[in-house]
Amino acid sequence: MAAGEIWLTRHGESVGNVAAALAERTGAGRLGLELRDADVPLTDVGREQAEALGTWLAEQPVRPSTVWASPFLRAHDTARIALDAAGMPPALRLDERLRDRDLGILDLVSTHGIETEHPEEWARRLRLGKFWYRPPGGESWADVALRLRSVLPEVVAGDGPVLVVAHDVVVSLLVYVLCGTTEPEIMELVAGRAVGNATVTRLTRDGDAWTLDRFAQADHLAAEGAPVTAHAEEEGHADVF
């Protein structure tokens, strides 16, 4: 059997999201964080959002048969809190192929910092475009799509709905890979429309074809009174990166 639905969700608001937003507002060149990207925790708001996600899961007529998550703390904890709130067994599959995009030398550098401290990279990004630009030592969107292709056969193998808890870029690129969209099509979908924290993106399957049913919906958060936040996922960067 193969999964007929995939539910994609981004982690709840993280300390990195808040630090990135502060850097953008103040024009700081770097984020005030000392943590590895893998160790960035949720904020109190992020935990509240994860609980609201769990309430939504508990209300679904069919529970997910399999739950996958990025091993990064903010995604792992979002999945764990949601499953606990839903009263579901804690069985959870972590896979490093679902991790966030690696930004290489631009890790923890704000948009202002890239423009002023790495003008050559700023110019190269503007020339190559969001999808193909790879920071030195990091990954492009295309690189992330490549590693996601390697995990997808395992993700879709289970019967029933599958839940994936990961990151903004991972959610967007899973839509790209599964639905067979082009670079212009996925860029149009995400333009000015960040995948908000703990939002739900739903894809359905008919034979071998996947269809996007909903993208980055936050109704369940509003229903539970949880804040709706839409920080740019690639910590410290505006939509241009």
CATH H-level superfamily:
Phosphoglycerate mutase-like
> How many separate helices?
9
* The first-level CATH class name: Alpha Beta
Structural class: alpha/beta
Taken from the alpha-carbon principal axes, the silhouette is globular
Element pattern in H and E: EHHEHEHHHEHHEEH
Low-confidence blocks of residues: 233-239
Strand order of the largest sheet: 3-2-4-1-5-6
User: Could you describe the largest sheet, including whether it forms a barrel?
Assistant: 6 strands, mixed
From the alpha carbons, calculate the radius of gyration and give it in angstroms.
17 Å
**How many domains make up the coordinates?**
1
Compute the number of strand runs. Answer: 6
CATH fold assignment: Rossmann fold
List keywords for this structure.
alpha/beta; Rossmann fold; 9 helices
Give your account of this protein's structure.
The chain has helices spanning 15-26, 44-59, 73-86, 111-117, 119-128, 141-155, 168-179, 183-190, 219-223; strands at residues 5-10, 66-69, 93-94, 162-166, 200-206, 209-217. With 241 residues, it is an alpha/beta fold. 41% of the residues lie in helices and 14% in strands. The chain has 9 helices and 6 strands.
Task: Compile the SSE list and pairings.
Blueprint: E1 5-10, H1 15-26, H2 44-59, E2 66-69, H3 73-86, E3 93-94, H4 111-117, H5 119-128, H6 141-155, E4 162-166, H7 168-179, H8 183-190, E5 200-206, E6 209-217, H9 219-223
Parallel strand pairs: 1-4, 2-3, 2-4
Antiparallel strand pairs: 1-5, 5-6
Helix pairs in contact: 2-3, 4-5, 6-7, 7-8
